[in-house]
Design goal:
7 helices, homodimer, 28% helix, binds guanosine-5'-diphosphate, CofE-like fold, binds manganese (II) ion, 60s Ribosomal Protein L30, Chain: A, 2 domains
Chain lengths: 249, 249
């Protein structure tokens, strides 16, 4: 198998209301089955998910967690308002309203104006489907779309790109029934394909002032579905790590 | 940035003593700064890390953990012998003698003969350096080498490719001091570059009978060092997840 992955050149500063499908279509020639990957930052910007940091009133709980983390209580209040569970207090690991588990609910203060925060898209799978459909409309090409963010990991230092939303690509690939080179059934049964593609895209997008929030992966033979990323999020009961953290709180 | 990633065609069944650098050099034309990625399976095979499953005597502890996991006690004994700590009993999550945390110590029964197991390479960073140096000798090209395996993650379903050894590429990229598009210093400070490259390679290598255990990533501008993967492994005290699991045991 051979794939190519490239970042789209000359993407402007994204503003509320921008048509991200058009931004891509005007700057590169897409092909059927390309995977088009967007940093969540620009999807958030286009969807107007930017808020004034100080335009919220911190609760006592936010003040407490802010002190613990040497953070701004307003910022922590945004984190709490976008979470369903606190899994760890310092660092502040939460389960977000979207179902993903990450530090600070994936709320960004980088790559946006000082004094503002950027929430993740309200429904990243829906955002991905919308961009995918709009790309089809503008170019006639049927692509898959992934929306990414950076997440830390247990046990390993270093954050990596993961998917927080997707459309037209199966998030996980169930390999039960597959056989190895010797005819044995596989013990490893589920591959996190969409997160592997997200990592691949993130590696070329960069994290700081590269200005390259869109990547195209071409030539990858992927499984297609429209279930979105949520199938990846483990239920509490099925996740012994989450359970151990909750028990310790 | 534009990268290409491809799997090397016609790789044979790897046997003990095979020269993996020669296997690559005979089948593809490498360039300076390519990242050559090897599935740990074939490095293990080449290094003779294949053992007869039943050629070990399970302890009572192995019998107990085997019963809990509906596993073969011989297999579990191999897992214990290659681990320094049990972090969870079912599933059997361990810290391996190499320092990485994974289920079953990364010991494979797939893609090898029935009745045998494959241990990870004894020193995957050294293996990576050795292959890198031998590629230079054979081809005159200075490449980086990564050795991969599949690992599960906390919170997310689906295993993904990670690095278990590397040479010539920095495992993590410290971004402290970098600024974003608005001139702010980054909050996200460390990127797990080598694991992003590993995920990218794993995505095209496959998991079952594809027969493509070697991938080449070309065109990626990476940071170079020879520290290996171990800088990625979090110390117990710095890892609140590991600590919570150990406390619960
Ligand atoms: N051209 C352009 N690049 C952006 C914009 N916002 C972020 N980026 C770039 O997108 C990439 C990812 O940015 P990051 O803040 O890490 O986004 P995240 O991964 O979604 O949190 C980096 O290369 C940034 O420089 C934007 O509005 N326009
Ligand atoms: N040609 C060839 N392919 C192999 C060999 N062993 C494993 N593979 C392939 O290498 C890839 C990864 O195999 P896997 O068992 O998942 O290795 P792991 O990720 O290191 O545990 C798959 O495409 C396998 O079919 C071998 O000896 N020869
Ligand atoms: Mn982000
Ligand atoms: Mn990012
Ligand atoms: Mn393996
Ligand atoms: Mn594998």
């Amino acid at each position: 198998m051979r794939i190519t992955a490239y970042t789209v050149d000359d993407v402007p500063m994204i503003q509320k209301g921008d048509d991200l499908a058009a931004v891509v279509a005007e700057r590169t020639k897409l092909e059927d089955d390309d995977v088009v990957v967007f940093a969540s930052t620009i999807v958030s910007k286009a969807e107007g998910r930017r808020y004034l940091l100080n335009n919220i009133t911190p609760t006592a709980r936010a003040e407490e967690l802010a002190a613990l983390n040497a953070e701004d209580p307003h910022f922590i209040q945004y984190v709490l308002d976008n979470s369903t569970k606190v899994l760890w207090k310092h660092p502040l690991l939460v389960e977000t309203v979207l179902g993903n588990v990450c530090i600070n609910a994936g709320i960004d203060r980088s790559n946006t104006e000082t004094g503002y925060i950027l929430l993740l898209p309200a429904d990243p799978n829906a955002s991905a489907r919308k961009i995918r459909d709009r790309i089809l409309e503008l170019t006639g090409k049927r692509v898959a779309v992934i929306i990414t963010d950076m997440n830390g990991r247990s046990f390993r230092e270093g954050q990596i790109g993961v998917a927080v939303g997707c459309a037209g690509i199966a998030a996980i690939h169930d390999k039960r029934g597959d056989v190895d080179l010797f005819g044995h059934e596989l013990k490893i049964t589920i591959q996190g394909i969409v997160d592997e593609v997200a990592a691949c895209a993130n590696m070329i997008m960069g994290e700081s002032n590269e200005g390259t929030p869109i990547a195209v992966i071409r030539g990858y033979a992927y499984l297609k579905d429209d279930l979105g990323i949520s199938v990846t999020y483990r239920k509490d009961r099925e996740d012994f790590v989450k359970q151990a953290l909750l028990d310790k709180l």
